[in-house]
Design brief:
Elements: H1 2-12, E1 27-31, E2 34-37, E3 42-45, H2 48-51, H3 60-71, H4 84-97, E4 102-107, H5 110-125, E5 129-133, H6 142-146, E6 162-166, H7 181-199, E7 206-209, H8 225-236, E8 239-243, E9 268-271, E10 282-287, H9 288-291, H10 306-321, H11 324-342, E11 349-355, E12 358-363, H12 373-385, E13 388-389, E14 391-393, E15 399-402, H13 410-432
Parallel strand pairs: 3-13, 5-6, 5-7, 7-8, 8-9
Antiparallel strand pairs: 1-2, 2-3, 4-10, 9-10, 11-12, 12-15, 14-15
Helix pairs in contact: 3-10, 4-10, 7-8, 11-13, 12-13
Amino acid sequence: MTDDLLARHRAVLPSWMPLYYAEPIELVSGSGRRVTDAQGRSYLDFFGGVLTNMIGYDIPEIREAVERQIRTGIVHTSTLYLIRQQVELAEKVARLSGIPDARVFFTNSGTEANEAALLVATNHRRSHQILAVRNSYHGRSYAAMGVTGNRGWSASALNPLQVAWLHSGERLRGLLARLDPADRIEAAVEDLREVLATQTAGNVACLIAEPIQGVGGFVHGPDGLFAAWKKVLDEHGILFVSDEVQTGWGRTGEHFWGYQAHGVTPDLLTFAKGVGNGFALAGVVGRADVLESVPAISFSTFGGNPVSTAAGNAVLDYLLDHDLQANAARTGAILADGLRAAVAGLDCVAEVRGKGLMLGVEFVRPGTTEPDPALTTRVFEACRAGGLLAGKGGLYGNVLRMGPPLTLTEDEAREGLAILVDAIRSCAQAEVAP
C-alpha cells in the first residue's frame, strides 16, 4: 500500500529528499505520455521525471535497444574496454553539438557532467575562479553546488571554487528588470566587466550558465546575451560552459541546443536528462584542446556503460527520425498561447514564460510581484486532482513548471491545457472569494 510505502520511505531515507504532493504517489506503470499510480489513477505527465523521460514511457524502439544489449550478457565492462555503443553515441553527440573537433566524456548525471566541465575548465586555465549566474542550478555535488545561485539548493556554505556572480535574466525582479528590454544586454555586459574588474584576480577559468534556468523557474535572459558575454570572455581567454541539462535535444523548439538562440558556440557543453530517457546517462562535450586538459588518468566507472548508451543511441535516433524539435515548437505553442490567453485577466499570474516544451507560470500576490508559493501549491495540487502531473520551482517556489515528453501530441497538449486553465482559474477565484 502507498501509505505503508510512505512510512517506510520516511524511516530509511533522509528528510531533505522532498516528495511531491500532500499525499505522495507511487507511479507503477506508464505508456506514451501517461502514467498510473499504485491506486490505479491515470495522469497525463507534463513533467517527465523532471524533463528526463523525453520520449515518453514504454517506447518500443528504446526498450528493444536496451533488451538487445542485455541479451548479450554485457551490462557493464568499464571504460577500460572498447564500448561500441559508447563510441557510436559519442560520434552522434559530437556531430550534433556544433562544437568543432569535439570530444565527449560520459557520466551518469547532470551533476557529474558539470563537475567534469569544471574540472576541465579549471585545469585548462590553471585557475579555480569561476563566473556563475544568480538563480542558477548546476547540481548537488560539492563544486556544482558551489556554482549554484539559489540558496534553497545550496546545502553547504563551503566551496572549493572562488565564484563571482552575474545578474540573471530575471525580468520581474532585480536591477536588470528595471531596464527596458533593449538595454538589458548592454547592462549585463557592463555588469560582467565590473565583476571581472572588482571580484576576480584575473585568469578566470570559465563562465557556466543555463540558457534557460531550470530549477530557477524557467527564467531566461534575452536572446543574444551569451554572445555579448562571450565577446568579453574572449578578451580574457575565459571559457564558456553552456549547461544544457534541461535545454538540450530540441526541447526549446526553436533550436536543438539552448545556446543556439544566442548566436554563439560554447567551449564546453554539458548534457543529461532526456538523452537517456530515464537511463542514467549524461556527459560533457567540448573542443579537443580543452577537454584534453585533464593531466592525470580519469574515467567514470558507470558513465557511458553499454546499456545506458544503447538507450541513448535509440533515443537520439528516435528524436531525429520523428523531428521532435519541430513537435516541441508546435505543441509548446498550443500550451503557451493558450495559457497566456487564459490568464490574461488574472492579476495573480505575473508571467507565462519559456520556450517550446519548457514552460513556467509564475504566481504572485494580486497586483504585485510578491511571490505566492501558497497559491502555486494549490494550483499544483489541483492539477494532480484533475489528472495532470506538473512540477514546481523558482527561487521562491512560486513557479509551476511544465516539461512534457517531446512526443506530446496536439490533442494531449489541449487536454493538459484545459486541466491547467481550470486549476489556475479555480484556485485564483478561491483566492479572492470572501
